[in-house]
Amino acid sequence: MHTLDLVALTTQELVASGLQLPIMDAFYTIQGEGRFTGYPAYFIRLGGCDVGCVWCDVKESWEAAKWPVLSIEEIVKDALAFPGRLVVITGGEPLMYNLDPLTKLLKEKGFTTNIETSGAHPFSGNFDWVCFSPKKFKKPHPSIYAQADELKVVIYNKSDFSFAEEHSNLVNSDCELRLQPEWSKASKLTPEIIDYVKNHPTWKISLQTHKFMDIP
Ligand code: SF4
After folding, report:
1. Which of 167, 206, 153, 209 is nearest to 34 (CA)?
2. Which of 69, 17, 75, 18 lies closest to 43, judged by CA?
3. What angle do CA 202, 203, 205 make, to 5 degrees?
4. Distance 10 CA to ligand 1 centre (A)
5. What is the number of other CB atoms lying within 10 angstroms of the CB of residue 14?
């Protein structure tokens, strides 16, 4: 698309095409959970989520209009200011947006791209690792199942174990399976999750280690 064409587009159209995105936060830290635990990573937290988890710890992300809209060039330039070349795109719910343009540019600049998503919207983007964390509050879009490299189910009550099993039957056979205690209930639920994983060894435990380290 030519620059003059871009000038003619409204912000709404640019966001719809994925050339601009609402950014709630972007920061360099250590990935605290899942397959890449312990890796330095630049997190891009997109604003906007329509999933509505009752225990959500980033409810301020829900309303996309609250957050500044940046071009993908600005987003990538900010990421390049740090030495790590692993990017984690999260939210909010990042798949509310077309992530093809942003991930294409990130890959051109040499980044490894990860996403953390509830899968509630059609899949887009070029990702090296897809962490799919389905939520009961909004059904996943069918396009996520073939893409998931990791299934991470947050355990908030006992019925979440059967919810986890249901989804494990829908992902690829090499998808890594993880159960993660919801943070506010971790002391109560972790012993049950330990027992569950010992009896169902296709699963592993995921802990939010960044919360223990007191980093974002
Ligand atoms: S999908 Fe994530 S951001 Fe959205 S409500 Fe659930 S926990 Fe919060």
Report:
1. 206
2. 75
3. 155
4. 28
5. 17
Residue type, 121: H
Say yes or no: CB of residue 90 within 6 Å of ligand 1.
no
Mutate to test the pocket of ligand 1, among 57, 58, 131, 208 (most ligand atoms within 8 A of CB): 58
Q: What is the pLDDT of residues 11-36, one digit of tens each?
A: 899 999 999 999 999 999 999 999 99
Predicted confidence (pLDDT) at residue 4 exceeds the cutoff of 60: no
CA distance readout (Å), 187 to 158, 163, 182: 14, 21, 9
Q: What is the mean pLDDT of residues 115-134?
A: 98
Q: For the chain, what is the radius of gyration of the CA atoms? A: 17
Question: Which residue has the least CA distance to atom 6 on ligand 1?
Answer: 53
Which string of b and e fits 37-59 if b means at least 16 CB within 10 Å?
eeeebbbbbbbbbebebeeeeee
Supply the pTM of this predicted model: 0.93
Burial (0-12, 13-18, 19+ Cβ within 10 Å), 206: buried
